[in-house]
Amino acid sequence: MFVCAGFLGSTGSSWCDFYADRVATEAGEGRLFERAEQVPPTEVALVFGCAKNYQGRENLYFKHRIEAAVALWQAGKVKCFIVSGDNHAESYNEPEDMKSALVAAGVPAEKVICDYAGLRTLDSVVRAKDIFGLTKVVLISQQFHNERAAYLAESVGLEAVGLNARSVGGPSAKRNARREKLARVKMWLDVNVLRTKPKFLGKKEELPL
């Protein structure tokens, strides 16, 4: 097995970056789609959270994820959604913001379940399997994020496909590219070295299928 560790110095770190990036990209190959019509019918979609607004403006990552989820619903591909994210403060609640946006777009409120413990992508994926009892899921985020989530899903035996939300360009894309490089290394270490578990698990929850 390839040993990936960012503390091996510049050479080890570069190999770690390369390998983590490759396995995430490969995990998404043939499983991620650009249009809702291409997605195989699956009962539940998992929408990954992010801030609704950024620096006082609408966050396009959020906007495009909601648009992708609505397109999937309108195409009749899923029966319900799990919206998973952070709600660390009273004024910051990713799941509730996503639910409100989906309901405003025509998705019935009872078909949108909030997962308030999706503090990280790993937490959201593992909880989808262990708390919500999924064996199959549609991932909804931008492609770079869906690839990483697909690797995490594969690692826990969760069968996943994904709908890629529209990408975002400009300075934010460059910032996210830098973050994603580190996130993929952390992804690999979490799965293969650290055996990281979600911060919160708790009781199993039923979905409105």
As for the CATH topology, it is Rossmann fold
As a percent range, the share of strand residues is 15-25%
Gyration radius, to the nearest Å?
Answer: 17 Å
CATH homology superfamily = HUPs
**Count of helical segments?**
6
Oligomer state equals single chain
Q: What would the principal axes of the Cα set say about the shape? A: globular
Low-confidence stretches: 5-11
CATH classification, class level: Alpha Beta
CATH architecture: 3-Layer(aba) Sandwich
| Adjacency order of strands in the biggest sheet | 1-8-7-2-5-6
Outline:
The chain is α/β, with parallel strands linked by helices. Helix content is 44%, strand content 16%.
Give a verbal description of the structure.
The chain is an alpha/beta fold and 209 residues long. It has one domain (9-194): Rossmann fold. Helices cover 44% and strands 16% of the residues. It has helices at residues 9-28, 60-74, 94-104, 121-130, 143-155, 171-194, and strands at residues 32-33, 44-48, 53-54, 57-58, 80-84, 112-115, 136-142, 159-165. The strands form 2 sheets. It has a 6-stranded parallel sheet with strand order 1-8-7-2-5-6, with helices on both faces. It has a two-stranded antiparallel sheet with strand order 3-4. Helix 1 crosses helix 5, helix 1 crosses helix 6 (171-194) and helix 4 (121-130) crosses helix 5. The longest helix is centred in the last third of the chain and has 24 residues, at 171-194. The radius of gyration is 17 Å and the shape is globular. Mean pLDDT is 93; it is low at 5-11.
